[in-house]
Amino acid sequence: MASGTVALDSEAYELLKRQKKAGESFSNAFRRLARPRKPLTSFAGMGTDLSRRERRELDRVYAGLHEADRRHSEKIRTQWAGK
Fold it and tell me: Would you say the pTM of this structure is higher than 0.70?
């Protein structure tokens, strides 16, 4: 396999180092991070094969996450208001 040298400034190096998984080479980390991502439209139609019960359960979970996020945001707002 051919190889080459790439110069990174210290900030770029640290960013790549933080994204690198344990046991992963820098080359593999770069490949993983640089590969094209799927567009959101490729996920259209997912979940259409879910049963009514499964959809209700997902809705319940998402509602709980939304509520937890709202409470967390309110807590942060309250803390910042007191400063």
Answer: no
